[in-house]
Amino acid sequence: MAKMTVARAMVEVLKSEGVEIIFGIPGAAIYPFYDALYDSNIKHVLVRTEQAAVHEASGYARTTGKVGVCVATSGPGATNLITGIATAYMDSVPIVAITGQVNSSLIGKDVFQEVDITGATAPFTKHNYLVKDPKKIVRILKEAFYIASTGRRGPVLIDVPIDVQMQEIEFEIPKEIDIPGYKPKEKGHPLQIKRAVEAIESSKRPVVCSGGGVIASGASEELRILVEKQKIPVISTLMGIGCIPTDHPYYLGMIGSHGQREANLALRQADLLIVIGARLADRALGDTKITDNMKIIHIDIDPAEIGKNVDTNIPIVGDAKQVLSEINKRISERKDFWAHEIKAQRKVLPDDDKLHPYDVLREISRAYNGDYIITTDVGQHQIWAAHNLYIKEPGTFITSGGLGTMGYGVPAAIGAKFGRPEKEVISITGDGSFQMLLQELATIKREQVPVKIVLFNNTRLGMVYELQKKRCTGRFIATCLDGNPNFMILAKAYGIESMRLESKEKLKEAIEIMKSHNGPFLLEVVTSPDEPTIP
């Protein structure tokens, strides 16, 4: 066994886990780790705020299937991670966050830049650690990666006091990780699977509701086989977009309060709802009520989610890929697609001389033919993107679903581009969300990350503005962004090429210019404040 500092041991464990890139900002309480990182081949991306580090790690994790890693110092460095960690937790993204902490002998004395980050993040991490014993660091790091990447994925935080980082230990990596009490169940119960098959085959109007769990488990092909064999219409949550191609004949769209009419209509008419990897929270259901006449099959790897929001007749705890594979072995073929009349009612959007957001998004779809990774922020543009972009591959529509975090899109695009550099990465954002973390333009410039940013500028916090217009009789307060900067000049200040689009006649030209540009590019789209979320 080799002798080394805890800081160096941390780096060696990261290397053993296949970590190639981490996102973060150094500080006094984490400097021993950074010093050890200097001698490794792990790439470090210097962000401009710690929240962005988690979002970038998230974008990387969601495009690669690997664990994303971010690092921060103690105090405000650690607390700045909180929103990003909560975002990852709500969307089940595997993250390992490493924070420095003050000297272990000073913990609890309110010294400079001390904060109880393990206590603060306990409600929205899968697990977290305060490392007190230097000898346990290797096991803790290995456990963190195992916990983050298995079962229902999620973030794990490790807080390491500076004096612990500097101590020497005997370095040895354990051959296997065995955590008492943590045994994620991946195989569904055979009897429950048998009951599910019988329920599907006996139903007349079955509907599949696909969530982010289908994409996380890599179960898209198994889902496609099931729905094509049984000719079942598919509706998705926001996180489930991309579970099957959005142009698939059986895909009806996103459900919920901002969902497509035909998707919600199918849900109301179904006699059997097959929920896969979704929790069906309030925004997903909207005002749709689950009736007593509807039977529900709920498949999820997290038993806590089954029955939490809707009563379930046939619960199946297990990995979506494995469970669907077993169902497909036993399921027969159905002759007719019952929802063809619903799909035929799809609304035709207005085609006029005005430049609408859906025109821009559909032109992007046409120009790229779905060969991209899309990230979005949160707001009206998120819903426009969900409804109008062509998504043909799972894991290529990346957004903040559960927490609804403004500022997520651009950092996530940076992480996604590092994860899959061969893919074109386009971030769809709004002027409100963009200004939450616009300083990441500096990261794009420094690292020369060739992401494309489509910025819808309506000089409003659009979603809330629309809400005030509808429900507050136009009593607008704190939603007008009259102080917006000149985004073209801002982009130029960061060395990023840009273009402003104000008319429909220039639309195709603008998208082609953005597409052909070899490097980062910002396309500002001027949009009416009165453009509705759903036309």
TrEMBL record:
Reactions it catalyzes: 2 pyruvate + H(+) = (2S)-2-acetolactate + CO2
Domain of life: Bacteria
Cofactor: thiamine diphosphate; Mg(2+)
EC number: 2.2.1.6
Family: Belongs to the TPP enzyme family.
Keyword Repeat among record annotations: no
Originating species: Caldicellulosiruptor bescii (strain ATCC BAA-1888 / DSM 6725 / KCTC 15123 / Z-1320)
Enzyme class: transferase
Pathway(s) this gene product operates in, as recorded in its UniProt entry: Amino-acid biosynthesis; L-isoleucine biosynthesis; L-isoleucine from 2-oxobutanoate: step 1/4; Amino-acid biosynthesis; L-valine biosynthesis; L-valine from pyruvate: step 1/4
Protein name (database record): Acetolactate synthase
